[in-house]
């Protein structure tokens, strides 16, 4: 008899933290994880998911998690990213933003075209094949559910969700190793420090309670005001991801502080950014249902393998070269594989993992979150819709 264990949102975070710590410890002790810069939440999350898969397969126990706080940590993470969007940095990264948006949209076209071509060779219906294209790869789980539920064909939702799960795992495993390979092959060096910290007056300081509390309160207030902004945007017909309002408010506060020469504790915000990202990903990854991948046997597995090869080669030879073939481009490449096969938080985790070993890239942490969170969904859904209409 199989037992079902239910965990509330606090217990869920507790288990996520346990396996995050396991991931951190294993990365320090296992050279493979260090060599390929595998993110800590990915290590711990996949280990738990494998354990959960085995226990379910043996009909012993199944875990159900309340992932309410996953959303909270995601919003906090994107809000902290908003504080990095200073006008001076946006001005410097303007052309790079446009270039990265271009290559991200180009990858979407490649993903769907490859899905259709391989699907035709394998005699798979085009709409089924598209559920292994940019819908789950660039779109992730959210887009997979939204798109598949609006196509009157049985089984598409299961395929799309399973493909998104596959992409999330693989994108997190191949992104950092690619960046490391590029950095070492071309002897690339970072010219940045973690944060320009104009607001910190270039002072070196220890973390203290007052500054950390100030950072935490600023984040919470930005999140709160941002949700109100989301409400009014929805009222006028603009349905945006839940983190857009808070991220926008954070960017406004950051730039007002620059103009008024008011201090914002950026070092502390950056620490909270890292904490919230790790917790968000850890909760998301322990909640993965690996048994969904069993739906991808046979021809569908071939389609997904083709997607992995396509994304890897595209990022290696197109994204890296168009973005400048430098250190920033290598970090952006790790990020592109993260959200080109999963989601923007995976992209940031990929980049952070590489940054921890080789140094920081301000440009990458500006360009990838903005394109991944603000623009790519619009283009992806528009392109997917055109493909679906053509093949329906």
UniProtKB/TrEMBL annotation:
The entry's keywords: Amino-acid transport, Cell membrane, Ion transport, Membrane, Sodium, Sodium transport, Symport, Transmembrane, Transmembrane helix, Transport
Protein name: Sodium/glutamate symporter
Principal location: membrane
Domain of life the protein comes from: Bacteria
Compartments (UniProt record): Cell membrane
The encoding gene: gltS
Role description: Catalyzes the sodium-dependent transport of glutamate.
Organism: Streptobacillus felis
Molecular functions (GO terms): glutamate:sodium symporter activity
InterPro entries the UniProt entry points to: GltS, MFS_trans_sf
């Amino acid at each position: 008899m199989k037992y079902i264990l239910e965990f509330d949102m606090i217990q869920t975070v507790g288990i996520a933290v346990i396996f995050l710590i396991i991931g951190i410890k294993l990365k320090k002790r296992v050279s493979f994880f260090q060599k390929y810069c595998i993110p800590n939440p990915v290590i711990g999350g996949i280990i738990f998911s494998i354990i959960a898969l085995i226990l379910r397969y043996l009909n012993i126990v199944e875990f159900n998690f309340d992932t309410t706080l996953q959303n909270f940590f995601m919003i906090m993470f994107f809000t902290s990213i908003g504080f990095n969007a200073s006008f001076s940095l946006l001005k410097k990264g303007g052309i790079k933003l446009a270039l990265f948006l271009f290559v991200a949209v180009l990858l979407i076209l490649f993903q769907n075209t490859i899905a259709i071509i391989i699907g035709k060779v394998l005699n798979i219906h085009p709409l089924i094949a598209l559920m292994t294209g940019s819908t789950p790869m660039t779109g992730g789980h959210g887009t997979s559910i939204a798109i598949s539920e609006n196509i009157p064909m049985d089984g598409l939702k299961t395929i799309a969700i399973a493909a998104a799960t596959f992409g999330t795992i693989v994108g997190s495993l191949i992104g950092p190793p690619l960046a490391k390979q590029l950095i070492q092959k071309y002897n690339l060096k970072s010219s940045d420090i973690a944060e320009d910290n104009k607001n910190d007056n270039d002072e070196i300081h220890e973390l203290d309670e007052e500054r950390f509390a100030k950072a935490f309160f600023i984040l919470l207030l930005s999140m709160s005001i941002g949700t109100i902004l989301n409400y009014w945007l929805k009222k006028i017909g603009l349905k945006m991801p839940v983190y857009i309002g808070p991220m926008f408010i954070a960017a406004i506060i950051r730039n007002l502080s620059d103009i008024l020469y008011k201090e914002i504790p950026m070092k502390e915000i950056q620490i909270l950014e890292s904490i919230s990202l790790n917790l968000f990903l850890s909760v998301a990854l322990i909640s993965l249902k690996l048994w969904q991948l069993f739906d991808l046997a046979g021809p569908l597995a071939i389609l997904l393998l083709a997607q992995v090869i396509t994304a890897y080669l595209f990022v290696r030879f197109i994204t890296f070269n168009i973005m400048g073939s430098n250190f920033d481009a290598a970090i952006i490449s790790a990020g592109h594989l993260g959200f080109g096969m999963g989601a923007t938080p995976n992209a940031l985790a990929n980049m952070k993992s590489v940054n921890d070993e080789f140094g920081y890239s301000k440009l990458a942490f500006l360009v990838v979150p903005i394109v991944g969170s603000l623009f790519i969904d619009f283009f992806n859904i528009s392109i997917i819709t055109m493909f679906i209409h053509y093949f329906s």
